[in-house]
Amino acid sequence: VADLNGLRYTRAGTVEEALQLLERFGPRYMPVAGGTDLLVGLRRGWYDGIEGVVDIARVDALRGLDAQDGQICIGSCATHAELAVHDLLRAEYPALASASAAVGSPQIRNRGTIGGNIVGAAPCADTVPALLVAGALVEVVAPSGTRSVSVDQFITGPYTAALQPHELTRAVVLPRLKPGGRWGYERLARRGALDRARMSVVALAWLDDDGRIDEVRIAPGAVLPKPRRLSEAEGMLRGKTPTTALLSEAARGSAAAVVDEAGRRWSAPYKQRVLATLVRRALEQATAAEGLPDE
Ligand SMILES: Cc1cc2nc3c(=O)[nH]c(=O)nc-3n(C[C@H](O)[C@H](O)[C@H](O)COP(=O)(O)OP(=O)(O)OC[C@H]3O[C@@H](n4cnc5c(N)ncnc54)[C@H](O)[C@@H]3O)c2cc1C
């Protein structure tokens, strides 16, 4: 146990050791991975009563990315820098790789992890929309065993995740997707360099042989207190030919619903227009509908 600016610091070597330490120390200790959220929060006084951290960043079983049995298992301590350049992710889940590539700055991406991103559960967490669209499961380990929950069940509200103090997020598991899907990804930030997303949208669509939308999934980022897919727009688009007029209509409708749900403040008219544009653009990319005539 070392001292880190008045905070007790312990490094775990294995998942079992980390779980034992968290159980022994109780809720006054928190796990720390990259520390890019936690250390900032501690300094700002967001975690009252926290006396120490258990560093899990060097636990081998929590690192790296493993493709097996119809799924891809991303260790919770995989960094954004690793995910941004991973060939398999870039090929099969390009919006997730792009989302990780958009996080913060090179320093933040080298330390910040996917586990920290979802446990921190900031509404603007960049990986969340792509994980929702991919149908990802979050694997949680506790001394009593392991459970898997979907990302929208795991993130229960702004900065709140369904995780007990003695539990760890072990991995994020992506199911292999049926072939032929196309992704769209749009992200708006105030500045290029170090700013968090103001809004983002991920879309994924499969077209049938006649060019109609067989299946489509859409998720916005940084606009809703609790993340969810835009099921109204998805339902409206299914079975239809993706014309610009149709995609615009679906985008406008879902943007209005999202802004209503988030609460109408002075910025609502701006947000609604921008979100509708991002949804339409992401859908155009995902359906390859760019340049299609309006109907
Ligand atoms: C300057 C700056 C810019 C940023 N820009 C962005 C951005 O553009 N987009 C974005 O999404 N985020 C951004 N962030 C936020 C942050 O970098 C990310 O959310 C990052 O992914 C957090 O990961 P971490 O490993 O550093 O988390 P940590 O700070 O180590 O942990 C965050 C929380 O998760 C818990 N935790 C971490 N791992 C686990 C685990 N395996 N099991 C259980 N609990 C765990 C910790 O106890 C803590 O509560 C930025 C942060 C800074 C400081």
What does this structure look like?
This protein is of the alpha+beta class and 295 residues long. It contains twelve helices and 14 strands. It has a five-stranded antiparallel beta sheet, with helices on both faces. β9 (155-157) and β10 form a beta hairpin. Bound molecules: flavin-adenine dinucleotide (FAD). Flavin-adenine dinucleotide (FAD) binds at residues 30-38, 40, 56, 76, 103-104, 108, 111-113, 115-117, 119-120, 125-126, 163, 168-169, 194, 196. Flavin-adenine dinucleotide binds at residues 30-38, 40, 56, 76, 103-104, 108, 111-113, 115-117, 119-120, 125-126, 163, 168-169, 194, 196.
Protein topology:
Elements: E1 2-4, E2 7-11, H1 15-25, E3 29-32, H2 38-43, E4 52-55, E5 65-68, E6 71-75, H3 80-84, H4 87-92, H5 94-102, H6 106-111, H7 114-120, H8 128-134, E7 137-142, E8 145-150, H9 151-154, E9 155-157, E10 160-161, E11 168-175, E12 182-189, E13 197-207, E14 213-221, H10 231-237, H11 244-262, H12 268-287
Helix pairs in contact: 10-11, 11-12
The structure holds flavin-adenine dinucleotide (FAD).
Flavin-adenine dinucleotide is lined by residues 30-38, 40, 56, 76, 103-104, 108, 111-113, 115-117, 119-120, 125-126, 163, 168-169, 194, 196.
The spatial strand order of the largest sheet comes to 5-6-11-7-8
Q: Rg, please?
A: 20 Å
Largest pleated sheet: 5 strands, antiparallel
Overall body shape = globular
**Distance between the ends:** 67 Å
Indicate the low-confidence ranges by residue numbers.
Answer: none
Count of DSSP-assigned helices: 12
Hetero compounds: flavin-adenine dinucleotide
Strand residues, percent: 25-35%
Helix/strand structural class? alpha+beta
Mean pLDDT: 93
Number of strands: 14
Order of helices and strands: EEHEHEEEHHHHHHEEHEEEEEEHHH
Question: What proportion of the residues is helical, as a percent range?
Answer: 25-40%
